[in-house]
Amino acid sequence: MTSAITTREKPLPPSWKDSNTHHRNGAARFVAIDGEGITLPDNEHRYVLLRVGTSEPLENPNGLHFREIFPYLYSHYQRGTAFVGFYLGYDFTQWLRTLPASKARALLTKEGIAKRRRYIRNGSVEPLPVECAGWQFDILSGRRFRLRPKICYCPISLCKCKPKPPWMYICDAGGFFQTSFLVAINPKKWPRPILTAEEFALIQRGKEMRSTAELDDDMRFYNRLENDVMSRLMDRTDEGIRALGVALSPKQWFSPAQAAQVWMRGRAPTRETLAETVPGWFLEAARAGFIAGWFEIFIHGPVSGITYQYDINSAYPSVAKSLPCLLHGEYSRGLGKPKNPPALTMVKADVTVPKNETTRYIGAMMHRFPDGRIARPIFTGGWYWLHELEAAQRAGLCRVRRWVKWCGYEPCDCPPPLAELETLYEERLKQGKNTPLGRGARLVYNCVYGKLAQSIGQPEFMNFVYASLITAGCRIQILNAIATHPGGKSCVAQIATDAVYFLSPHPSLPISNKLGEWDVTEHSNITLFKPGVYWDDEARKMITAGDTPQFKARGVSARDMAARLADIDRQFDDLSEPPPLHLNSFGKPTKTETEFWPSTSFTPGFQMVSAREALNRGDWSLAGTLMDRPVTQNSWPGLKRQEAYYDGKMLRSEPRRHFGVEAWDLGENGAGGDFARSVPYTGNAVLTDDDDTTEEYGITPDGMVDQIVIDAMMPDRKWTPDVQK
Ligand SMILES: [Zn+2]
Ligand SMILES: [Zn+2]
Fold this sequence. Notes:
The protein has 20 helices and 29 strands. By secondary structure, it is an alpha+beta fold.
């Protein structure tokens, strides 16, 4: 069966510099918001000082109440001003902890938010605010707080009384930097520093002293300086993205994806246009087959000698720049195996590893379990892009057991809508990657994928054809690298989305700084702890020296961390036999097997129960109080791998056979087969399991505790493209 789609008017691609000129208002200025706490000898934590910008602070040695905080914040409202903070999770919790529990539940729980949701013609709009003590307020995905006084006594928040005062939006801008404040402002990282070396030393000292801080002039001085420097940092960030023709309004500074969204206007097709133009069955197949990043280790623990890490330069933008227009061209579909497949074809197929394979290193294709976790098992089935399936076949990973059906797209000859991503990338190289424009360009091109894969909120550019082509395109490059490596799949130590780690050098990958080509890093004596978490001699040296800014600020002692990494290395060396890694027939670990795998536990210096976590635990009075819960990092790889064994000195494992379906038959119509197939993407699952941090272990003024621990284990950790906070 074939159905042709009639063509629409071709959109004119805008030039990258003069677009969005009609939105050139943006934020007139940036005012930073930050608060400070003290911890009493009995471990009671009090939030005692709050300051907007460099104005007079609000202080209360007994701890600030929301009835003081809300009027203080709102008294600084000014039209056109963007109010921002650097990781405000700690401050938000402290502002809210004095609210009645019922209001907190309405504000923060899933059920509370669902009750406040409302819909207007074209999808959802902001939910109704929560009301308390003469104030209306709301919080968006933990990153943007809005506040205004209520002017009347109506029992509902949707009344018609006028004039309603404007909303004051307070954005957590930490996501624009993806690093600690000290790293973001470090004068050595800016061609034109935003602060002097003396100021930097003062802020560094303030952070070191924080655990013993008192409400005194030192605290006031440090807090004011930090706000001042934060507003300079934001000015420079704004300068960078404005140079790309992108202006963000005061309410948009909670996510760098907002910058990508503005940039995409007039370039990428909107969700609405897609829904009108592209057949529903094609969109559905793309969504079902969408899988985000591929994170997997194939060797566990120490690998002696050199390991070669090959990274694709800006992998996602390098695929996105060539995506076809989708609005014209021909869509078709059929059953079984496609005979003359269109240029872009998806197939629904059941797959497994090659016949007579004696050693299994890597699974057949990506697979999503019902809980949203991703693995690459020996058997699976689902929707795949045909060119990814073929790349997996070339790499010797996969054979098709059954072709179920297919759908395809033969593109038009329009220029690729996102071709200018390459211009952004080149402009960044030309101007310097640490310049404001270089940083702004990177923010925009790194976040385009996140807007395409976004399915909650108001996803203007949700596009699973693009999103799944981007992640598949990245995996295809990795698979091609495996196929062309002389040692093939047996030489792969780790895959981390856009990076592949080989045990020996790859002879032919193009190494350059060009978009989509490769960068190589050599690691000596790497230890692979879990997917995306590893260290080598260089990292051991950096941690022992303890001179990276992360450490001192984050309640993690560098010396302690170095000792722990050495201890994990030793635990691997001391294993007398492969630790157990057998799943029971329901895909769950055998009860205690995680205990046999090397692990480590930390008790961080500062852990505060977040507002949301307090509600999760059913005790609102815990919000904003200190907790004491060790963070355990375990190397058990059973979600993705099973059957560990030694290959010389290296500890290896096999890909997972989920549900133990070894002799596996789907039946003619797939009846019962979906049991073993990959679960279609629904939009509720986490986008990547690299980003599985939770608030369970508490929050700090520098972010979430478990994230900080991972950052401390990997001092040179880079920002992977999937992480979209
Ligand atoms: Zn009213
Ligand atoms: Zn076209």
